[in-house]
Design goal:
- By secondary structure, the chain is of the alpha/beta class.
- It folds into 2 domains: 10-101 and 216-309, 3-Layer(aba) Sandwich (Rossmann fold), CATH 3.40.50.150; 126-214, DNA polymerase, domain 1 (Orthogonal Bundle), CATH 1.10.150.170.
- It is built from 14 helices and 7 strands.
- A 7-stranded mixed beta sheet has the order 3-2-1-4-5-7-6, with helices on both faces.
- The chain is globular, with a radius of gyration of 21 Å.
- The mean pLDDT is 94.
Amino acid sequence: MGFSHKSVLLEESISGLAICPNGIYIDGTAGGGGHSLEIAKRLDPASGRLLALDKDPDAVAAASERLKAYPCAQVIQSDFSQIPQVLDSLGVSRADGILLDLGVSSHQLDTPERGFSYHSNAPLDMRMSQSGFSAYELVNQWETGELARIFREFGEERYAFPIAKNIVRAREKKPVATTGELAEIIASSIPAAARREGGHPAKRTFQAIRIAVNGELDSLSQCLDSAFGRLSIGGRFCIITFHSLEDRMVKQKFADFAKGCTCPPDFPVCVCGRKPRAALVTKKPITPSAEELKENSRSHSAHLRIVERLTGG
C-alpha cells in the first residue's frame, strides 16, 4: 500500500509560515509529503531549503519520492523532538519556519498490519518508527494501575480502571495479541449506555496507548522549547493538533513565549526585565472550513496555532 495522507489545514498552515523563497524551513512531520511539497514549491531551488523529517520509514520513502523533483528538499528519518540535533548535524544554525502536523496519519490508520486501528483485527503494534517498544508489550506487561493511569491521562477515559483490570484479567489466560481482541475487552468494560455515546468505545483507549508507545507528549514538550530556540527572529512556528492534550500544551507554551513583564501591577517600573519572546499570530486556533470537514472527516478535531519569534534571546 502506498503512503496516503490528506494534509489537514494545508492552505492555512502554508500561509501561516509566511514563506520567504530563500529561507530555511522544517516540516517536522513530513508524512506523505503534502505540506512539504507546498513548502518546496515556494522556495528558490538555489537558495531556499526544506528539511522534511519523519520517524516512520514508510513516510520517509513516500516523502522522498514526492519531493525528488525539488533540489531544495532533504528528507530525513528523525523525530521532531530532535530538530536541534538535525540542524547541528547539517551545520544549520537557524530556521525561518517550522511546521508540525501532529497525530496519526491516514496511512498508519488504514494499514491494518501497523496495528493502530480498532476497525480491523491485526497484530497490536502502533509504533510510528516501526521499531522499539510496541503496543503489544505495553498491553501485556504494564500493571493495572499504570494502564489505568495512561488511559485516564492520555485518553481522558472515564472507565480507565475497569478497562485496565479486564485487560490484565484477559492476559492471564493468554496474551492480548490483536487490535480486535483489545477492542472487544475495552467494549465489554464500558457500560452499555456509555458505549452508545461519542463514537467507538475503544477510541480513547487506543489513543492513550498510541501516545504512550510513541512518547508523543514528551516529544512535543521537548520540541516546543528546543525547536523554538532555533527559529530566526521573525520565524514562524505552526502546529496542528488533534486532541485536547496536545492543543492545551501548545496553547500554554505559546502563551508563555508571548508573555512579557511579570512584575506586580502596582510596581511603578518593570524590574523583572522580561520581554515577550514571541507574538501570537493566532490568538484563537484556526479550524477546518466547512468544505474541508466535508471532504476529510479526519480533520474535524484539528487546531492550528501559530507564533512568530520576536527576539534572539
